[in-house]
Specification:
By secondary structure, this protein is an alpha/beta fold. It has two domains: about 5-45 and about 310-425, Alpha-Beta Complex (Aspartate Aminotransferase, domain 1); about 60-305, 3-Layer(aba) Sandwich (Aspartate Aminotransferase, domain 2). Helix content is about 40%, strand content about 10%. It has helices at about 10-30, 40-45, 75-85, 100-115, 140-150, 165-175, 200-205, 235-245, 275-285, 290-300, 305-335, 360-370, 400-425, and strands at about 35, 95, 130-135, 150-155, 180-185, 215-220, 250-255, 265-270, 340, 350-355, 370-375, 390-395. It has a seven-stranded mixed beta sheet, sandwiched between helices. Strand 5, helix 7 and strand 6 (about 215-220) form a beta-alpha-beta unit. It is globular, with a radius of gyration of 23 Å. The structure holds pyridoxal-5'-phosphate. The site of pyridoxal-5'-phosphate has 12 residues, from helix 4.
Amino acid sequence: MGEFSSLDVDALHGLREELRKEYARFQERGLKLDLTRGKPSAEQLDFSNELLALPGQEYKAADGTDCRNYGGLHGLPELREIFSPLLQVPVEQLIASDNSSLSLMHDLVMHAMLFALPGGTARWVDVERPAFLCPVPGYDRHFSICQKFGIEMIPIEPTADGLLDIDEVERLAASDTRIKGLWFVPKYSNPTGVTVSEQQAERLARMTTAAADFRIFWDDAYSVHHLTDHRVTVAPILGLCEQAGHADRVFVFGSTSKITFAGAGVSFLGTSPANLQWYLGHIAKRTIGPDKVNQLRHVRFLKDAEGVQKLMERHRDNLAPKFAKVQEILAEELGGTGIGTWTEAYGGYFVSLDVLDGTAAEVIRLAKEAGIALTPAGATYPYGKEPRDRNIRLAPSFPPVADLDTAMRGVVLCVKLAAVEKLIQR
Ligand code: PLP
């Protein structure tokens, strides 16, 4: 189709007429499609249906613990052993919890607000304007936690090649004691799919932070969620922090939400002995132990780390064609137009689409009026505000391929229409 910006006024008006007609036809179809949340599809959930019948009458853990009863704050050792190599955290520093790693992140922030962390001298609530570094585009629910607790969010834009701007992170972390944390998805990130390099991980572990109680929230939500044969690995951050003399710097999170059941999985926290003691001391007041029956059925079903990888291959076979479809349509419809760039990841759950500056909200509005739900404009930025109004997070996992095809054709149509309207106004 060629570069939109090189079209003259007449050509733009002609194109707008064509696109408006196409859009009206699309609207008439009365569709109801959803590309908002990165949920596993029903087919993917079916891969783990065996869990529904487990653990049956075999409710005792390896050490004889009756999983039906109270206790076991650390979670079942045999489950922690399965996930220890996958999350690169020694078993004794890894705890297994209930169904959501997001709730662990929320609770850690909440506890740090109310009780000084190891190495810290003050509760975050007593700090004037505590702040977190937030690489963007990022995960909206991380940002919601900060917003809820009144923690200022400082966006970190990526470098020109789409990677973490580690220089900027180092500069800011060293500059101000009120900067207490960094949200970070190290692998196949939400939404850009980018993975941290070994060198960057080392720098995060080594960097000087003004706050002694600075924490990296290392959210390894997509550690085994490969989409290709190129299985990307990340450096073991906990070990790197220890070696750098900053053993307490990192909280590592993981979960089986996108491995088994998104609503009934198991979550994990890996961190230093001092942090663990601090955290367990607090949660011991809110629970007498996690859901060990669920943990046990996960052990029986997954068996070992290899079992997890095998299950992930089934997910990959299911997801890869959907991601390929999104890439195909974006390339076919937006390639060479200069009005869209997008990511192609080796894993994870998302595609991050940047449209013409100042048109993302309009694309999302047009799509909504044509029956396609997209993640709200600005959602990938702190406070829901993206200065350039160009980023859209696409989540292809949930709809069947045929619906995805239709939805994506609608999305690219809206991208073009919004771009033409914008270019005509200029
Ligand atoms: N972290 C990231 C980066 C995510 O993308 C998601 C879900 O989309 C979560 C955490 C949620 O994890 P959980 O289901 O374990 O709460």
